[in-house]
Structure formats: structure tokens, C-alpha cells
Amino acid sequence: MKRHTLPEPGSRKQMARARRKHTERVFFAVVFTAIELWAVVAAVVLINDDGVLAVAASVVLSAALIAVWDTWRAVFASGRALRSLQEQQDETPAEEVAPDQPMKLVRL
């Protein structure tokens, strides 16, 4: 289970770093999705076999599409968490922001 600690809502430096990391995740997710879709299309077009090879290829291709789905699910979850922290920061005055425990985003 991978944990991403969320930044403190009052820290501008941590929030800027978290936004930058989220932008990097989105960029890499777009690149990964493009490469995976290209590979899936190439495999479907180029495989001219029946039987066991066709079944194995379909399993591998479905796993590739599940990986793309999981990547985007993680990107959207981290984006939602970052937006909720940003909204909390906008609503709460700076002197009231003092979290007792650091918040953690758990990826299941």
C-alpha cells in the first residue's frame, strides 16, 4: 500500500510542491496512456494467430488496460485530495491552521 502524505494546508511551500508533483503525475499518466493504447492497437492489428496465443494476448491486453485505469484512478484521487486541501486553505484563516496529525492519502 503506497501512502502519499498530504501537505499542511497552511504551508505554501508544501502546497506548491504538491501541485507540482500532481502535475508530473498527470503528465506521466498521459504519456503512459498514449504508449499503452498504441501498444494495444499494434498488438491487436499484428496478431494473426488463433488458440492459446490469442487467449494469452487478450489476457495481457486486458491487464494493460487495467493498469491505465488504475493510473488515472490514482491521479484523480490525488487531485481531489489536493483540491479539498486547497478549499480548506481558502476557507480557513492562516492563524487557525494547525493540524495535530499530518493527513495521509491511502492508496488501496
Task: Explain what this protein looks like in three dimensions.
- With 108 residues, the protein is mainly alpha-helical.
- The chain has one domain (3-106).
- Helices cover 69% and strands 6% of the residues.
- The chain has two helices and two strands; from the N terminus they run βααβ.
- The chain has helices at residues 12-46, 52-91; strands spanning 3-5, 104-106.
- Helix 1 (12-46) runs antiparallel to helix 2 (52-91).
- It is elongated.
- The termini are close together.
- The model has no long low-confidence stretch (mean pLDDT 81).
Secondary-structure blueprint:
Elements lengths: L2 E3 L6 H35 L5 H40 L12 E3 L2
Descriptive keywords:
108 residues, 69% helix, two-stranded antiparallel ribbon, mainly alpha, 2 strands
In short:
Keywords: Membrane, Transmembrane, Transmembrane helix. The protein has 108 residues and is mainly alpha-helical. 69% of the residues lie in helices and 6% in strands.
Rounded mean pLDDT score: 81
* Residues in β-strands, percent: 5-15%
Question: What overall form do the CA principal axes indicate?
Answer: elongated
Q: Helix- and strand-based class?
A: mainly alpha
Element pattern in H and E: EHHE
- Note the gap between the termini: 6 Å
Radius of gyration: 20 Å
Unreliable residue stretches: none
Largest sheet: 2 strands, antiparallel
Count of strand segments? 2
From the structure provided, what is the oligomeric state, counting identical versus distinct chains? single chain
Largest beta sheet: strand ordering = 1-2
Helix content: 55-70%
Q: How many H/I helices?
A: 2
Q: State the domain count.
A: 1
